[in-house]
Specification:
Blueprint: H1 2-19, H2 25-54, H3 59-62, E1 65-72, E2 78-84, E3 87-94, E4 97-105, H4 124-136
Antiparallel strand pairs: 1-2, 2-3, 3-4
Helix pairs in contact: 1-2
Amino acid sequence: MRSLLITAGLLLATRSAVAAEGSLDAAGSLVQMLLGLAVVIGLLYASLHVLKRLGAGTGNAAGLLKVRGATAVGPRERVVLVDVAGKVLVLGVTPGRITALHTLDAADLPGTPDAPQPPAGKDFQSWLKQTLERRSR
């Protein structure tokens, strides 16, 4: 930032000397425009950096939720599995709404060490149907 200010000072000093001639006034205007653009871009970058540092204070909240997986069921619709306090929420996500479809125990899902693994070749649809039938009993 300091080098930018030094460069700006030098450019302004040379611009006043060149403006006395009158022939290079267009070049001075171009330099002034580019310098203004550089200052605006620098301010945007600095504010982005400050916003990132201020937003980093959510460290504890990030550990409470964990997305286990998601799959698209339409162009803008998804089914998402989210871990929350030992439970797994099956959520339907659309652009205007999030709907809880089902709640499972984390041990009921495949991929956990104590859960029995489903036979190879089963797809998600049959597994979900079987799990929902088991939970309704």
